[in-house]
Amino acid sequence: GRFGHRCGVWARSFVIFIAYSYLFGVCCIFVTAMKISLQELMWNLQLGELGWLLCTAIFIFPFVQVQSLHEASFMTLMGVATIIAVNGIVVGQVVKILYSPKDGGAVAAATAATVEAVKGLSLDRINGLTAIAFAFGGHVIFLEVLSEMRKPQDFKLALFTSQGVMLGNYLVIGVLGFLAYGAAVQSPITMSLPANTVFSMIAHLCLMVHVLVAYCIESYVIVIGLEELLDSKAPRIRETLYGKSPKIGWAVLSGMVLVGSAVVAFCVPNFGNLMSLYSSIGIFSLSFAVPPLLWMVYNYDSMTNFSVALHSILIAGASTAGLLGLGASTKTILSQLRMRFLAV
Questions:
Q1: Sign of the CA dihedral with 28 first, then 29, 30, and 32 last
Q2: Tell me: the pLDDT tens digits for 88-127?
Q3: Cβ-based burial of 244 (10 A; exposed 0-12, middle 13-18, buried ≥19)
């Protein structure tokens, strides 16, 4: 409708802001996950939070210089292979715990604590729901992946295959993890594995490789977006960065994303809290609130009263869920930051 055309620029800017905020949040989460794996692999070193993040950033930087997803095909295969290995180790260890007679009482106590923890609309319950939403947030980069595919016609097959595998994987790991560890389960679940064993070390190493691949893909999309922004808003800066060598410009932009991610990871070191925070901001907006909102904006003149009411309910429900998640995650983060600085 006429109203939709007038709001076109605003709508596009809003979606871009939410999408890139979420992508940057994912980068922060991946930096935190890699830092945790690095700490577990080198458990005998005492570097402090800043030291571990610096080591993580130095390790990541060479890999984010890939300037095309085509160049990252081998890395993608590595990412798939390593997460399969992590899942296999986790399932094996969890099943071992569940069928171990000496842990029966602990399992029962953990399960009871879990049931008690999720009663009512607690902060942990809300954060858990937003973390689940985060797990399916890959749709933010679907279009970028589609544009880089050698056979775009296979995208539907890739989409349904990946989402189906993800759903099965999350169900198995989530259910078995809570049956074994209850409310004491940590995020990521590899943190709950017995420390300093061969299997836990392999799991942390594989998880680190997997997260590295995922970070490179997310960082690639952000850097491409920054290049487009510089082209349209600050061409002189773009020319200065890329004038002598495109590699230098890419290194500067990817380095900025990495430094920013490390700073956020330092301020909010908890992996689960970061997931809940960015899920509230990005997933609920892009998945549930923005689509019906934009549909109404562009088609309001031709919509029936029933359709308007239905879309309004969807927008209100998604907005409420997002605000609840944002409030719960923010409150938890502020509480942990307060405890952290008081301890210092």
A1: positive
A2: 888 888 888 877 765 445 555 555 555 555 554 466 666 6
A3: exposed
Which residue has 């983060």 as its token pair?
Answer: 333
CA dist 241 and 259 (Å) reads 18
Give 34's Cβ-side CA count (13 Å radius). Answer: 29
**Is residue 206 within 8 Å of residue 82, measured between CB atoms?**
yes
Burial class (CB in 10 A: 0-12, 13-18, 19+), 247: exposed
Find out whether the peptide bond into 188 is cis, omega within 30 degrees of 0. yes
Six-digit token string for 24: 């940057």
What interhelical angle do 305-343 and 290-299 show, nearest 10?
A: 140
Residue 237 has which token pair?
């800066």
Q: What is the CA radius of gyration of the chain?
A: 22
Nearest-angstrom CA–CA distance, 186 and 78: 25
**DSSP state at residue 149:** -
Task: Residue 223: count other Cβ atoms within 10 Å of its Cβ.
Answer: 22
CA distance 121 to 145: 37
HSE-CB at 251 with a 13 A cutoff on CA atoms is: 8
Instruction: Please give the torsion angle defined by the CA atoms of residues 189, 195, 200 and 203, in that order, rounded to the nearest 10 degrees.
Output: 50
For tokens 């892009």, what's the residue?
286
Question: Looking up tokens 């008081």, which residue turns up?
Answer: 342
Query: What does the block give as tokens for 234?
Result: 């600050």
Token representation of residue 212: 């590295």
What's the pLDDT tens digit per position in 21-71? 778 888 888 888 888 888 888 888 888 888 888 999 999 999 888 777 665
Task: Cite the DSSP H helix spans in 61-154.
Answer: 73-98, 104-117, 123-135, 142-148
Q: How many other β-carbons are positioned within 10 Å of the β-carbon of residue 112?
A: 12
- Cβ neighbors of 308 (< 8 A, separation 6 or more) are 296, 300
What whole-number distance in Å separates Cα of residue 250 and Cα of residue 208? 23
The pTM of this model reads: 0.73
CA atoms within 13 A on the CB side of 189: 24
